[in-house]
Amino acid sequence: VGKVLGEGAGGSVRVITRDSDGLTFAVKEFRPRKKNESKEEYAKKCNAEYCVGSTLHHPNIIKTLDILHSSDSSKFFEIMQYCPIDFFGVVMSGRMARSEINCCFKQIVNGVKYLHSNGLAHRDLKLDNCVVTFDGIVKIIDFGSAFVFKYPYEEVSHKATGVVGSDPYLAPEVLSPNKYDCEPVDIWSIGIIYCCMTLRRFPWRCPKSTDSSFKLFVMPDEHPHDYVQSAKDHHTLLTKRKGEKLLNEKLEKGKKEKEKQKENNEKSDKKSDKETFVENPEIKIETDKDQKTDDTASEEGVAKNLEKMKINSTEKQTSVSIETNIKKDKDSKDPKDSKDSNNPNEHADANKKFKQLHGPYRLMRLLPHASRQIISRILEIDPEKRATMKEIYADPWFQSILFCSEDEHEKPVNALNHNHTI
């Protein structure tokens, strides 16, 4: 038995290595049985979590392999695939590129979509419940809070109750005493995960009115924001800048080539002149003499010019000094610049300048332009208006994300536009 990978309300997870072949696994030891819980109830809960995990087969879901228990059934152990990298640590390292963040986000969404297609909601999606392989494949773990909202061959979705999950990732409706749909709850959580990956901090501690950050978020925006048009404008601007950069690089390259050519020509001319001087020594003597005369004249001219420049410089400095002193006197007498000014417009401008930003844009402005449209829908307060999985997959930005995955033989298939932080 190796080190502890993680601990929670549902139990603790350790690394274990099998002696026969040296393979490594993650083993979850379920929490101890509660005093008011019968052996049968305890065994049923442990086996239920195993049954949920063992039926799931997807590149972005951890593989659940087996369940073991002690002879008296007082302890249960779940054997799972081992993934060595802690996703929370990767995110907080600050080393993730934007393309890597997008890749991980899409992988998580793919995993959640698979769960929902099987009538299962995770209900505790967070950075801590994701792990990563050495090949950059994200795996969702811990199905202790999972809820079956739709059984096979049923059309009706069942609603859940109770506060389940971690505070910063909770959807607002979970805190209400009413029943709620589980799919929008998971979708909200993946939106918070994206914000955490991008900003490396939580937008708020808990989605309730007593949290000042969340209170400001739920307020209406001061001005409407068209995130679709904003993304288009930003894309146009980036394209323009990229074109200008390429043009400048091309011009710079051409300039350097011309300078190099000029330098080569000068070297060639000097070589040619040298050969001429050797062949005609009389010309060389005359040229040296003329050059000496020219140099003497040139030195006299330079001396005169330097004298003129000194005089002009002295005059300019005197002029600037006088103008500066006049301006200082004027400024010191100007009532507009006084700290004790009673100008009402000035105070109004100051209040406007330090006015606290409120509304969803308070958070959206910190995210990449292309992601704002769908993330703003994912983080809709009203679950009825919140983006569905279908809408997420229809979003142009989400569709454009290149992501890593596994083929049918569990071999990694990596995207070419990024490397993973491991």
Automatic annotation (TrEMBL):
The keyword GTP-binding does not apply. InterPro entries: Kinase-like_dom_sf (IPR011009), Prot_kinase_dom (IPR000719), Protein_kinase_ATP_BS (IPR017441), Ser/Thr_kinase_AS (IPR008271). ATP binds at K34. It is an enzyme of class 2 (transferase). Residues 244-310, 325-352 have a biased composition (Basic and acidic residues). Residues 311-324 have a biased composition (Polar residues). GO terms for molecular function: ATP binding; protein serine/threonine kinase activity. It catalyses: L-threonyl-[protein] + ATP = O-phospho-L-threonyl-[protein] + ADP + H(+); L-seryl-[protein] + ATP = O-phospho-L-seryl-[protein] + ADP + H(+). SUPFAM superfamilies: Protein kinase-like (PK-like). Residues 1-398 form the Protein kinase domain. GO terms for cellular component: cytosol. Keywords: ATP-binding, Kinase, Nucleotide-binding, Serine/threonine-protein kinase, Transferase. PROSITE patterns: PROTEIN_KINASE_ATP, PROTEIN_KINASE_DOM, PROTEIN_KINASE_ST. Residues 240-353 are annotated as: Disordered. Its EC number is 2.7.11.1. One of its GO terms (biological process) is intracellular monoatomic ion homeostasis. Belongs to the protein kinase superfamily. This is non-specific serine/threonine protein kinase. It comes from Ascoidea rubescens DSM 1968.
